[in-house]
Design brief:
single chain; alpha/beta; eight-stranded mixed sheet; eight-stranded parallel beta barrel
Length: about 850
């Protein structure tokens, strides 16, 4: 931890804690940060207390210096008074700084983490408004209050040019990573944004790096002068190669085509290319029900507030259901969009504002809610950053949902009877996540952008989309023929035959390219030194299994059965489940099918199952196997259906959230009862059907040897295992960055599980999102996993990654990865260790 400490003094405790959290994230806890904020008065909590400031300084005191940042007024007086309580020898080590609280804190911690002395840290804090002022055009970027550039003429200078590919460029966290990395080396690092033709600035100054205004696609010149210049540039290059640890949205992933559609004027509409692919079909217009809000006086504001709270609670349940369904259909990563919507509903500032409007103005809940949502939406639209501007879609989506519930409107229905192109003004993320790609062949809207959440979901679903076309499209009659090309961003109303021919040729070329990729994907995944690794699919519907087989899946490593239980008023019957399991097994044509038993409860509730009480920590609550063992009849119904479907198929049962040996034995008792009942009724099943467990709880890893004696196979769920190992909720943005399956702590858990399984002579697979990350493939091979189970779209890429590697080199990478101290260092290690294919 850096020696220089920071103290944040504010009238508001919430503000100070928020600033500390933001600053701490920039440097991953490398700098001691104390808070002295608010006063112990429940009626009037705003204020500052000199004793509290003194205690904060004392708690982090360092002989290298303590920097105190204050917001306003009495904060300054309290800080000055607090210093007088300190011993004289310590007083001279404490510096009060007039820098802006938020920007100053971020700049100060980054400088402190980089090893700067107290005066340099103060200079960075004082210059913290420079970046913002430069971007807003208030001052010239040539103005600087940080240390000037000096050059070392004795050492040679090395230079590299890099393109920034991470989606949001060098925003706060990537900029902090850049500065922290540059500061690790003796060499002087200078950087210039060639795209914007800026001056050279210091690479170890967060303020100067931020003033470069680096966005995705910009080219940077990085120069290093000093004895370790080559090492410094290599480390910085690794950051860029790994996109600073951020995932990117691929805006155009379609292959190149030889058939180009020539410009035409007849019926052509130009728009934004948002999701690649060609669609030719009749149009169906979608018009969401307009909600008219009338403000009126209420005599009982408390009752109105209760009404709003009830609508918000129902909206939360609806969004959780959308999240669960979206996880099955588009994967946890994209479904995390709806986590943000849940957080919006829990925003204390927004809820307080709505409550205050109802109480102060005696107005109805609809009017108060609409007013605060409009304010938030307006504040997003006013932001300079276009990516953040687009988050207004989520605000509006959540706002409409609550309003719909308040006025009693039914939910919108987007289920089409026959295949069509959907035409609309816009689609919310919730709308898009609910689309059926077999019925919605294309999307054409008059607003939206390629980086909106709706566009991201459309790409994940593989639905071609053209956005931002002329509003005349909204006047088309249902059934009008349309063609659209999501790669070029054009659409045609009643297209002429020559356009149809060219689009059909383009569609055929795309399908041919897909078939060629699939042909390769149907080959076994064999490493360079001859070891075969099974690649299975994670699926959540009958449609998914067809995509999986077409993508080269060698079986299904995880069938999430929750989709059978959602969007209904009662649990599915044995016969309903049997039909689905048999249909999926039929498509697999004797490939293995691992069916995970129902994994709901806690954070994934079913509306027809009464929990009885709210859970403070649903991830630690009544879920998975715990839920099923408490509902034995519900559990047994599913087990009977799986057993009956097992005849003539390679079906296995997998139990989720196992934490103890007792749970496995209890589940096997119920399974035995189901088998006995079927035997007695003369109903056939596979008596040798294998039973396995999900390893996703740390206790399961600790007793993996005991569990291995009870079951036939393990499957590691790294999504949950990561958050339990790191004690961090992956849906909480304040700590979600800690939930990284490549953290050495998580990797050691995987290693321990694999070793216990293989010692017991059972197989072990991995079905978390980590399996689909090709950067992680060498780690997973080196750990000795027998199979990987991924979303169907990832199968070809994972098989290609396996074919490029050898077990020997993968084991060497793992040996080093397990000794690293962070997920970031593991990623750097992988990036620099893999030999590119010849």
């Amino acid at each position: 931890m850096a020696a220089i400490a920071i103290v944040i003094v504010s009238h508001s405790k919430q503000l100070a804690l928020g600033v500390r959290e933001l600053a701490a994230q920039m440097v991953q806890g490398q700098v001691a940060i104390a808070v002295a904020a608010g006063i112990e008065d429940s009626e009037n909590p705003l204020g500052t207390d000199p004793i509290q400031v003194y205690e904060a300084i004392a708690s982090v005191f360092s002989d290298d210096g303590v920097l105190v940042l204050m917001d306003l007024g009495s904060a300054l007086l309290s800080a000055e008074m607090a210093i007088e309580f300190l011993p004289e020898a310590q007083q001279e080590k404490v510096y009060l700084c007039e820098a802006p609280l938020v920007e100053g804190a971020i700049a100060a911690v980054v400088a402190a983490a980089a090893g700067r002395d107290i005066h340099q840290v103060m200079a960075e804090a004082r210059g913290a408004l420079l970046a913002k002022a430069t971007q807003l055009g208030v001052v010239s970027s040539s103005l600087s209050v940080v240390s000037p550039i000096t050059t070392n003429i004795e050492s040679p200078t090395r230079e590299i040019r890099l393109i920034v590919s991470n989606r949001l460029g060098l925003h706060a966290r990537p900029a902090a990573q850049f500065v922290a990395t540059a500061a690790r080396f003796q060499s002087q690092i200078l950087v210039r944004n060639l795209t914007r033709n800026t001056e050279l600035v210091r690479g170890d100054s967060i303020n100067q790096v931020t003033t470069l205004g680096v966005r995705q696609g910009h080219e940077l010149l990085i120069a290093a002068t000093g004895s370790d210049a080559d090492e410094a540039l290599a480390a910085l290059q690794a950051l860029f190669a790994n996109n600073f640890g951020e995932d990117n949205v691929v805006l155009n992933s379609s292959p190149a085509f030889h058939h180009e559609v020539t410009p035409t004027t007849h019926g052509e509409l130009s728009g934004i290319a948002a999701s690649p692919g060609v669609a030719i079909a009749p149009v169906i217009r979608y018009q969401p029900t307009h909600i008219t809000i009338t403000e009126y006086h209420v005599d009982d504001p408390d009752a109105e507030w209760q009404r709003l709270q009830a609508a918000i609670n129902t909206a939360r349940q609806e969004i959780q259901a959308v999240f669960s369904q979206a996880s099955l259909q588009i994967g946890d990563t994209e479904a995390a969009i709806f986590d943000a919507q849940l957080l919006f509903l829990e925003d204390p500032v927004l809820l307080s504002a709505a409550h205050q409007r109802i109480l102060d103005n005696h107005i109805n809940a609809e009017a108060a809610w609409q007013a605060v949502v409009d304010e938030v939406a307006t504040s997003y639209r006013a932001l300079e950053d276009s990516y953040l501007q687009e988050r207004v879609d989520d605000v509006v989506d959540v706002g409409r949902r609550v309003l719909r519930l308040l006025v009693g409107n039914a939910a919108a229905n987007l289920h089409l009877e026959s295949p069509a192109i959907l035409v609309a003004t816009d689609l919310t993320p919730s709308d898009t996540a609910g689309l059926d790609p077999t019925k919605v062949l294309g999307i054409c809207t008059t607003s939206g952008s390629a980086t909106s959440h709706s566009a991201i979901i459309a790409r994940t679903l593989g639905i071609p989309a053209v956005l931002g076309v002329d509003a005349q499209v909204l006047h088309l009659a249902d059934g009008t023929m349309m063609a659209l090309d999501g790669e070029s961003g054009r659409a045609w109303v009643e297209p002429e035959s020559d356009i149809l021919d060219l689009l059909a040729a383009k569609q055929e070329a795309w399908q041919t390219a897909q078939q060629e990729a699939r042909a390769t994907a149907h080959q076994p995944a064999i490493t360079r030194d001859g070891q075969q690794v099974s690649v299975f699919a994670n699926i959540g519907s009958i449609n998914d299994v067809q995509v999986a087989v077409a993508s080269g899946a060698e079986g299904v490593g995880l069938l999430r059965t929750e989709f059978l239980y959602l969007d209904r008023t009662s649990a599915p019957t044995e016969e309903e489940q049997l039909a689905v399991y048999q249909a999926i097994a039929q498509v697999l044509d004797n490939r293995p099918l691992i069916i995970r038993t129902l994994d709901v409860g806690g954070d994934k509730p079913l509306p027809y199952i009464k929990v009885g009480f709210p859970e403070a920590n649903p991830f630690l609550g009544w879920r998975g196997i715990r839920f099923c063992l408490d509902r034995p009849e519900l559990f047994k119904t599913q087990l009977r259906a799986i057993l009956r479907a097992s005849v003539g198929h390679q079906i296995k049962i997998m139990l989720p959230m196992i934490a103890t040996v007792t749970e496995v034995r209890a589940a096997k008792v119920i399974l035995g009862e189901a088998q006995a009942e079927l035997n007695q009724a003369g109903i056939a099943f596979d008596p040798a059907m294998k039973v396995g467990i999900m390893v996703e709880v740390p206790s399961a890893v600790a007793i993996a040897d005991r569990l291995a004696a009870e079951v036939d196979f393990f499957s590691i769920g790294t999504n949950d295992l990561s958050q339990y190992v790191m004690a961090s909720d992956r849906t909480n943005p304040r700590v979600a960055n800690l939930v990284d399956a490549l953290h050495p702590a998580v990797l050691r858990m995987v290693q321990q599980t694999v070793q216990a399984a293989h010692t017991a002579g059972i197989s072990v697979g991995l079905c978390g999102e980590l399996a689909a990350d090709t950067l992680a493939t060498p780690i997973l091979l080196g750990l000795g996993l027998d199979e990987l189970s991924v979303n169907p779209q990832s199968i070809p890429g994972v098989k290609q990654a396996i074919a490029r590697l050898s077990i020997v080199e993968s084991e060497a990478i793992v040996a080093s990865a397990l000794q690293q101290d962070s997920a970031e260092h593991v990623r750097e290690l992988i990036s620099t260790s893999i030999t590119p294919p010849a």
